[in-house]
Specification:
Blueprint (H helix, E strand, L loop, with lengths): L3 E5 L25 H11 L3 E5 L5 H13 L3 E6 L8 H12 L3 E4 L18 H9 L3 E4 L6 H10 L5 E3 L13 H10 L5 E5 L12 H15 L4 E3 L12 H15 L4 H13 L21
Parallel strand pairs: 1-2, 2-3, 3-4, 4-5, 5-6, 6-7, 7-8
Helix pairs in contact: 5-6, 7-8
Length: 296
């Protein structure tokens, strides 16, 4: 089975553009680069990876392109662009060109923007149009405050391929479920929205408790089905709570429990299809309706 990690990071704090690291756990305030992950990924049997931005600069996106050339497992990059700049289209096209096929999506760090309605601003329409026109996906890095605005954006751009990072960051540590699942119910009715099975362990307290995340995973499968979920490690943020292989085992076990027989889709084929990655999959890894990237 081909396994694709749909969400991992590299960063080098000495670059100076990772402002959020100042408030992050001390264990994360160091460099995490290809040599730190390569052996763990290989031991876990993960062949490919999508590298996701961690700094709100185009310079960091180009840095990720460089790292992708050092790490043969990286088959796609989700980058960053200032979506409110007047010439946003030119900026996106330049990143597409500089990535030479690596740029597969864009992600503003919406969770760090004070305005919870930012994603719904009409001033962003031009950027979203260009993302779609360039054949890119949109990664929604949000928490529950932003889900109403994301819903409005989905209404405005019904043909844009969107993925919800880390399941929208439900308040698992507080045991709050009803508000999150209500929003997921509305969001999942938009067929262009996919969701990453990622980042859930780090929403817990200090202890890793599989039982605490299970209701959320069950709800994700109920709403999105195995066709619109894709696994991501969220490494190295993951390392504050578990190692790479541990989270992979937990996620596989829960997937088998709630969508038996769909490991190939959730752990590989869905990410390949969604991000249009240059990865050859055995025919048996694709459901009949998954052999083309969705354009809905």
């Amino acid at each position: 089975m081909i396994i694709v990690d749909a969400h991992q990071h590299y960063w080098e704090p000495s670059r100076g553009d990772y402002g959020w690291l100042a408030q992050a756990p001390a264990a994360l305030r160091r460099a995490f680069l290809p040599n730190d992950l390569r052996a763990q990924r290989q031991a876990a049997g993960v062949q490919y990876s999508v590298l996701v931005q961690a700094a709100p600069t185009e310079a960091e996106t180009r840095y990720l392109f460089e790292l992708a050339h050092e790490d043969a497992a990286v088959v796609g990059v989700v980058g960053w662009v200032d979506m409110e700049t007047d010439d946003v289209g030119a900026h996106i096209e330049a990143l597409v060109r500089d990535g030479n096929g690596l740029l597969r999506g864009l992600r503003p760090m919406a969770q760090d923007i004070a305005d919870p309605d930012w994603l719904a601003r009409p001033s962003l329409d031009r950027a979203f149009d260009c993302i779609h026109d360039c054949g890119l996906a949109f990664d929604a890095l949000v928490d529950m405050r932003h889900l109403p605005a994301l819903l409005r954006r989905l209404h405005r751009h019904p043909h844009l391929n969107v993925v919800l990072d880390h399941a929208g960051k439900p308040a698992i540590a507080d045991g709050r479920f009803d508000q999150w699942t209500s929003w997921i119910d509305e969001l999942a009715q938009h067929p262009q929205l996919h969701c990453k099975l990622s980042g859930l362990l780090t929403l817990l307290g200090e202890q890793v408790d599989e039982d605490a995340i299970e209701p959320y995973v069950a709800d994700l499968f109920s709403h999105f089905g195995p066709e619109r979920l894709m696994w991501g490690s969220d490494w190295p943020v993951l390392t504050t709570h578990a190692d790479f292989a541990q989270w992979l085992r937990i996620a596989m076990k829960l997937t088998e429990r709630y969508a038996a027989g769909s490991l190939a889709e959730v752990f590989g084929a869905n990410a390949v299809r969604f991000y249009a990655l240059d990865v050859d999959l055995p025919d048996q890894n694709l459901m009949p309706h998954q052999n083309l990237r969705s354009t809905s």
